[in-house]
Amino acid sequence: MLDEKTKKYIEAVADQFNKDAYSHSIKVSRIIKQLQGFIDEEIELSKTRIEVLLDELVGFYTITLDIPLDSGTHIVRAVKFEEKESVIPCYEDVSRLSHIPTEESYKSKVGRLNKKKEVIFYGCLSDGKKQGISVAFAEIRVLEGELINVLKSITKEKIKVNYIGVFDHYKRGVPPPFEVHSNFELAYKYQESKFDNHLMIAYQLCDAFFSDILRTKKYGRLYEVTSVLASLFLEGRDSIDGIIYSSVQSEGDPVIALKTSTVTNKVEHIEAMSMVIEKDYGYAIYDAPTLFRGQIVDEKIKWTKEL
User: Nearest Cα to 295, choosing from 134, 87, 73, 92?
Assistant: First the structure.
């Protein structure tokens, strides 16, 4: 059964917007065309204008539901090892495998879900064994012969993430690529029952656009839009720890972007591995033997050669 809070929100939107539903569908369509034109480098938009347009979509044409990830959820992250002078292919500082320290945020480049000089932790959900490592390899686009350091982590308590664009799956008649609460589908169906057809179109357009730009490979000025979108979901919302979305390189596999405060307070790094990409078969399938294993000691990694 759909929770009362979500039902009341949907009813309130319907009461306010149904009477002028057509204008809302036109408005959302116009906003998306401007943002897409900017991404495609066909038109120019200022940073302020991008923020205003996205804020309009997020604030008025998006229903946000949290996904809880239980304590004990496994997360993996892969980093290419690129130090030429090192005796062993292993980074010693945990921060080198986790995220850029906050005091060094000036080093951070714009990413899919972070602005320039903004730090965020990207990782892949795992079963605690091999699942997830191959997705982490795909996410950083490893090449045969490259040396990779992998960080394994686990949540110490429940965290909450947002799934942006999740309702687009229900519009297309397909389930989300990974398990979500039944409330998502119930909310979508309740929207359909309460919204005028054109108002429903406005919300469908918004979800479709968000879903598209978060799962498409980088091109044009994509990150200049997606990074602002992520900030609108995360900034000033202490109850939300991050964003979950489908891997771009291994479609359908769940990846997450977490606030650094969440990583500090709610995530424990439990092990590191140094691996070599011997064979890339394609489709996120690899031969990658382990060379060294690392024990996490405070903020350092103590490495031991794999026998």
Answer: 92
